[in-house]
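thread: overnight batch results

M.L. [08:02]
morning all. the overnight job finished for the chain we discussed friday. pasting input first so we're all looking at the same thing
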Amino acid sequence: MAAATLVVAVLVRPGAVRAVDPEGCLSCHRYRGLARIAENDSIRLFYVAPTYDERRLGPHAQISCTQCHEREEVEMIPHQPVTPVNCTRACHLAPAGQMEVRFDHSAIEAALQDSVHSQEVLAEANRLLGSPLADGQAQCLLCHDEPTFRYPGETWAAHEAPIHRCETCHTERLPKDTRYYYWHVFARSRPARGPRELVRSCGMCHSHPAILEQTGMLDATGTYLASFHGKAMLLGSRSTAVCLDCHVGDLGNVHQMMSHTEEGSPTSPERLPDTCRSAACHPTAGHGVSTAAVHLQLSTSGGIEYAIAVVFIVLIVATFGPSVVLTALEMLQFVVGRQDPSHARHARLAEELVRRPETRRMLVRFTPHQRVQHWILVVCFTLLVLTGFPIKFADRAWAGRLVDLLGGLSFARQLHRWAGAVLILGFFYHVVYVGVTAWRRKQRTGQGWVRIFATLPMVMTPGDWKHMRQLLAYLLFLRKTRPEAGRFSLEEKFEYFGVFWGTVLLGATGLLMWFHVWTTEHLTGRVLTIALLVHTMEAFLALLHVGIIHMVAVIFAPPVFPLSPAMFTGLTPPEEMAEAHAAMIEDAARRIGAGPATEVSQP
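M.L. [08:03]
and the structure it wrote out:
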């Protein structure tokens, strides 16, 4: 019954199909659902878009089906078992109004034999991959998909107008198939695959464990995906460099790829700077751009990059680890309902001091200048996280969606840079503010500069470390009373120090990468590799502290939930003041004449 249906379909095929398909193959293969399940449970799709031939959309549009498939195997319906197509066999092209032209891929076969992908290399790769190519199949299919003869409709629509412009003259004056030649040149002048497909194709071998073990090569695909170019590709950029851009070069012979050790290779030490500085990549960069690492494998590099990674891992463990422990112990106190014996008295005293206009200013922890600086930091830090971490984790699905919401990778990168620039300006604003504050104190007290800077509110002192030891003993239930902290605790001073030096590191490395033309003109490109590594790891360290430790302290801690008003009004809630800044309350009480054991009387 199925065979009869197919025969009827052949007899009643549309006239348009008959005109472009004299062998009648499209009578069946024009239906999108034509497929079968192969022996390995994969789905073999046999759909051929009729427009592929009608509009001359590809290099196979002028080749009849039986020039690739054996006629005796496909002329019967249902077809007989089909012999694998040999891509190197000769073809006969039949341009409109011209004699048939003989064509074969022997030149490509010869180019491959002289390249790093010789027949012997491809045969061994096929074996190590588990022999995906059956006996008789062309080795071309290790890299090339089987032709599906389908073309994206949106791409055709986008280029319809240019073809009409060509046909205005050439259809009437020259006996040439303008449409076919346009698409042939158009297709051959750019990669046959998109960036993702191309990297995936190369990665089939260059990330395969068996091939890497036998050849001693590094995981080229994995290291590429970890690079800036790879992350940009994963986030949808079609202009970033992929494998062929570097290893073949602009309009180079893809099938004649050479090792970086061969003279004349685009990746050889002599030519690599010009490859990187091509018109499509970094045309204005300096000669040093070629020494920036694209395939950096930290685990085996053993250089300064590896040392930097180790240092940051130690920093994360040594700073974030204790901070997490302290935060967890603080939360435990709230869970068990434990409070310092003098907590209630301090809370009432703080409420009375805040209620009186003449004493409220004594408990203001943040001046208007400091609040403005803080909000500059909040806005910039949030934008930097939202635009930077999707690039760091480009292989995650959420990263692509977030970048799309931000308006695309190009806009996200610009937003990241300008948020960083504003953060640097805010940092200089803070430095000037500290300098002016110190100068005013010197004018008022006559103290030396060293003493003035050593006694600034956010500078850590030996007394702070004594306070930390006592606090740890209290949190571990080894001490009954909580040590009284002043205006700023050691934890807050440590966070301030982290933001200060973190802004310097992030700002300096960000500027080196932003102005990479200057960097590669005056410094080695390795500086870019180091800058990217430091920038990424410092950003990760900052996010851990701010996103977890700081957020718990100012949002999720019970005394301030759902949000501490300190950065809006400058005043910390009485409950939080009593818990974390009792010494400041006691100091204010003494200054107005109320002793440490008494409370402010009702007005």
